[in-house]
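Quick one: structure for this chain?
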Amino acid sequence: MDASNALGEFLRARRRLVRPADVGIGISGTRRVEGLRREEVAMLAGISTDYYLRLEQGRDRNPSPQVLNAIARALTLDQDAADYMSGLTRAQATHASARTRPGGRAPRSEQVSQSIRELIDGWSGNPAWVQNRFFDVLAANDLASALSPHYAPGVNLLAAAFLDPSERERRIDWELMTRKGVATLRALAGPDVDDPRLTELVGELSLRSDRFRDLWARHDVTPHTGQVSRLRHPQVGDLELRSNKLAIAGSGGLILVVFHPEPGSRNAELLQMLGNLSASGRTAVGENRDRRATTER
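Got it. Here's what it folds into:
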């Protein structure tokens, strides 16, 4: 990712996704470009081709809101993608001066408060965890870890989804989940495209996963909203769980994620069964530990 020309990367990626026929442009003969040509975007937006070219090349960093709105319409962007593009423009305008500041970026402090830990631990019937905007898990309750070993501190959920075959088997909706996950990562990262953690994560996944690389290149943007997740658990079978993602106030961007079944449903019964199995397993582990301690004494 080129932070100095993030807007240009975004524009190039998004115009490749627009089919000419969808914006009223007829096709005659063979086209050598995928999606729209630069001059076609400029025509649809009502700006000169030279000016649009300067935007893509990063030679103009201050397009007006009116121009951005016109380009958003030309590229058929939804409001989330249009807002993201505006954020890239604001960040790009100040990027050069930010790079010259002494001292560099201060390390990010990400601490889950004791009250939040107590809150999720108290939800014995709801898998819950805390993650940062890059999908690094910072805290999780026992039921979440029983649902998947990847819901555990120190695990990156995107890396697990793309790189661990067991996670693909566990997620019935893997195709949809990975597509939304990448678009949500871009939305959560926002215009801060040169963040060291983001650069590290995107670099690793781009090298090791063709699917991630293709999805990241699309520049899709989806806010972190609730959804229905379909999972396959080796002990209790298939579950369909709703999820809610809640921003934790005063945490610097941490997110609380909670799974919950429809009340009274078969999914609720399966989740309770999983909780019972998890509690039994923890009890057995504790009893074995106590026996060993007694024997050693």
